[in-house]
Design goal:
elongated; mainly alpha; 27 helices; Four Helix Bundle (Hemerythrin (Met), subunit A); 4 domains; 2 strands; 658 residues
């Protein structure tokens, strides 16, 4: 990219530049315009607006034109905006867009102040992004090292190693390559504007399009180029502002980071806000995994899904739609449940309907309508998450996350502990402790690995959770049958008269330890992800209440388990077996429903929606597959209990006759 200097040069002096972006536009009519074309057209519009906002201040100063050629180009650029709007699909905000464009054109013709022109361009860009939901962030974190390598390969010969425009080819270029340390010009550049120019290029100039680079490579290069603007002192100050939780820039997501210019940051919070912006550009990992960022990923994946569907690639469309839910929206559920539970449910249902519609190969118009509805809902969810946080909402949300994910595991552990106590084997609780502690350590280890070493997709996460839940359901069902069998009169007498010590040998102990492991392991990874997204979305004060909520929820779970344990010990042995067997039967039904639902969410099992209630706590979901499986388990269990009762009755009659 030896010619990247064109990106940040002063005003280009040729009138032909005014037609560059129009030449780059795909020639499509409104009727034939696909979502992919719309995204490209909107990106081009944003690119033009960025060009105007950056170059106008040097063209008109205090109402006086300083460069007539460049001023004519500015006028032509502004006039081209209406032609580009004609290529976009109809939208309720189109009228507002045209009014804003007209206002911008009049301001340029009237040689208005640069601050007004820049503000108008930014306002139009914001409405475009709101109306057409064009992705403006990388799908995953850009690599600083990759950006550095690309810069050295493509750009260093012109811009120099330190980006000062003093590369080996600089003396042969007119005008000279830009100095990336130029405060005046760089202060108007957002990360997205850098990425957009790298993507589209500038026709009829040395700055070609680098669309052959992957999307992630272009973002990596944009992030790397932007770092030249920052000093070490600013980076250090920005780190201090961020770690102190002050957040003077107000940036809480990659989207906000990508769209914010240094000038905007300065206007919002002075030098402190600028320093924080520059620090986050160098360390964007601080913004990962927030609910709003997860929703941005969800929107981008949904856009990919619609694009593939329009091209006729059903498989990729379904995969992208599944990823939109698992790698994006699902990570926000913990936060949304506390601030907008009804909206969360509506989105979840809408995304499931969308995936089913893809499988049914419905008309493109139907899919597009569903897509647009989901995007509006995701934007509404993002707005809710960005709103001022309530201490009560944060506290309740933090409590509910752990209670929801941990209650089933606690019931299993309490039942196992009670069984060992009844068998006079409490001294072997160490087996159970090994099980649940190993589950927590392994779950947290996988969560850490997913961040730093390997890529664990949402599909893999759901597969792990689903299989673990189904294995747990099977084992709990088996133990439940075993316990209920001991409650029968004849078996009960054998159990009492035999050695309780012998009834629970090492094989059984390790089996119970494995059940404890499975019951806890399936909850740990998802709980960690929910708390992580909740934590990163909250302010410093909110994070304190998240800690408090976690402690309160953990205390409540311990109290519940202790209460169940103590109550079970007070029951006569026969009633103990019956009660615990019933608990395990119910939990097996819960786990089977949740396990199948996880596989359905991961796209690994078909899902047939039916009109039925949903009770997440009990693992009841309105799909034919989950309900039929649970019905089979329920009727099978009832039938087995009835058979045992009848069999026991015959034995009692036989003993009396004898």
């Amino acid at each position: 990219m030896d010619s990247l200097y064109r990106l940040l040069l002063g005003p280009v002096r040729r009138r032909v530049l005014a037609l560059i972006f129009l030449a780059a536009m795909p020639v499509t009519t409104f009727a034939a315009s696909s979502h992919h074309d719309t995204a490209e057209n909107v990106q081009t519009l944003l690119h033009i607006l960025d060009y105007i906002s950056v170059d106008y201040p040097a063209t008109v100063k205090d109402g006086v034109v300083t460069d007539k050629e460049e001023y004519r180009e500015q006028i032509e650029f502004s006039r081209s905006l209406n032609d580009l709007l004609d290529k976009l699909p109809a939208h309720s905000l189109m009228r507002k867009l045209r009014q804003q464009v007209d206002s911008l054109q009049h301001a340029i013709l009237g040689k208005g102040p640069a601050s007004l022109i820049t503000a108008d361009c930014r306002a139009i860009s914001q409405v475009l992004l709101k109306a057409y939901q064009v992705p403006v962030t990388p799908l995953s974190l850009p690599s600083f090292d990759e950006g550095k390598t690309l810069y050295q390969q493509e750009c260093v010969s012109c811009h120099g190693v330190e980006g000062k425009g003093d590369g080996v080819m600089a003396n042969h270029l007119q005008p000279r390559p830009a100095n990336f340390h130029d405060t005046e010009r760089q202060s108007h550049r957002s990360l997205y504007s850098l990425y957009s120019t790298i993507t589209l290029g500038v026709n009829n100039t040395a700055m070609q399009s680098y669309s052959l680079l992957s999307d992630q490579q272009r973002w990596a290069l944009a992030f790397y180029v932007s770092h030249f603007f920052a000093t070490d002192a600013q980076i250090q100050q920005g780190r201090q502002e961020w770690e102190a939780g002050h957040h003077p820039s107000g940036i809480r997501s990659l989207k906000e980071l990508a769209l914010t210019t240094p000038r905007q940051a300065m206007s919002k919070g002075g030098e402190a806000a600028l320093a924080e912006l520059l620090y986050l550009r160098r360390h964007p990992e601080n913004l990962t995994a927030t609910p709003t960022q997860a929703l941005e990923i969800s929107q981008k994946k949904m856009a990919d899904s619609l694009h593939y569907y329009q091209k006729g690639d059903i498989e990729k469309s379904y995969q992208s739609a599944t990823s939109a839910y698992l790698d994006g929206f699902e990570l926000t559920e913990g936060a949304l449940k506390s601030v907008a539970p009804k909206l969360r449910k509506h989105i979840e249902v809408a995304m499931a309907d969308y995936r089913n519609a893809i499988k049914k190969n419905v008309p493109v118009e139907t899919i597009t309508a569903q897509y647009n509805a989901i995007i509006r809902q995701l934007e509404a969810a993002s707005d809710r998450l960005r709103s001022d946080e309530s201490v009560t909402v944060v506290l309740v949300g933090a409590i509910l996350i752990l209670l929801r994910e941990g209650l089933e595991a606690i019931l299993v552990l309490a039942s196992i502990a009670g069984l060992l106590a009844k068998a006079n084997r409490s001294h072997h609780m160490s087996y159970i402790h090994v099980g649940w502690i190993t589950a927590i350590l392994l779950g947290l280890g996988i969560w850490y690995a997913a961040h730093s070493m390997i890529d664990i997709s949402g599909v893999r996460r759901e597969l792990t959770e689903g299989v673990a839940a189904l294995v747990a359901a099977g084992m709990l069902l088996y133990v439940g049958f075993w316990l209920h069998n001991k409650s029968n009169a004849h078996q009960w007498r054998q159990f009492i008269h035999g050695s309780l010590e012998k009834q629970v040998g090492k094989k059984v102990l390790w089996g119970l330890a494995f059940i404890a492991f499975i019951a806890v392991f399936r909850e740990v990874l998802e709980t960690a992800l929910f708390y992580e997204t909740f934590w990163l979305q909250s302010t410093l004060k909110g994070q304190q209440f998240i800690i408090l909520g976690f402690v309160l929820a953990a205390t409540m779970l311990i109290a519940i388990s202790w209460m169940i344990f103590r109550l079970s010990l007070k029951l006569p042995l026969r009633q103990f077996f019956i009660v615990n067997a019933m608990i395990l039967f119910v939990l097996s039904i819960v786990y089977s429903g949740k396990g199948l639902a996880a596989l359905q969410e991961g796209g690994l099992l078909s899902s047939t929606p039916v009109h039925f209630i949903e009770i997440d706590l009990l693992g009841i979901y309105p799909t034919l597959e989950t309900l039929l499986t649970q019905m089979v388990i329920l009727t099978g269990t009832i039938g087995w209990i009835w058979y045992q009762k009848q069999h026991e009755g015959h034995k009692i009659t036989g003993h009396k006759a004898a």
